[in-house]
Amino acid sequence: MLILGLTKTTLLDYPGHVAATVFTGGCNFRCPYCHNGQMVLNPASMEKISEEEVLAFLKKRKGILDGVCVTGGEPTIQSDLPEFIKKIKDLGYPVKLDTNGTHPGMIKELIAAGLVDHIAMDIKNVFEKYEETSGCSATMIPSIKESIKIIEESGINYEFRTTVVKELHSPEDIAGITALIKDPSRYFLQSYEESDNVIEKRFSAYSAQEFEKILSLIDGPKPNLRGIE
Fold first, then answer.
1. What pTM does this model have?
2. Residue 66's domain is classified under what CATH number?
3. Which of 2, 18, 96, 227 is the most exposed place for a label (fewest CB within 10 A)?
4. Total domain count for the chain?
5. pLDDT, tens digit, for every residue of 65-84?
């Protein structure tokens, strides 16, 4: 496993848990608003953390932590992800996986083996704007659609989420994404935030008032706002 970061305690990354977050390196997307730019574009420049170091830390923190979030980058591009998560599960921790949904086979394998307890999948935009928003190839979209279906039918805890960028997401786009999801109560909107590690510093965020107006334009069940005040 290519591990490039470890947050030792978080109350945010795994809802309802006091968790540690493991950051894997590398990604098959190039979202221009990504705030983990170095981890995505130049993982070789970052200091690696060994599996042994992570597992030793988690073993020592048993009884204090009650969950582990595996995020990135994109964890599912790493072939040894199931083996790594199994080692975490063997320590007694529930595991949350963050993914972009481009590897449905890996997601299905992890669910079938009981290795993940919660999945958070990013839906970058309506499919017509996926290439522009994520830098991915249109050939990935069928896999993303398959992952949505697998996750919705998995029987485990899950959520979908979109980081909303004013220049990339119109109110109509948000309504369109919401329509893709069977249960909009499991869909969360989070606001773009500027940082030093953003890949391209040319974006801005909607205000809380603008988000409320966007929600008012959506017929039927609405997504949730996360961290937007």
1. 0.96
2. 3.20.20.70
3. 227
4. 1
5. 999 999 999 999 999 999 99
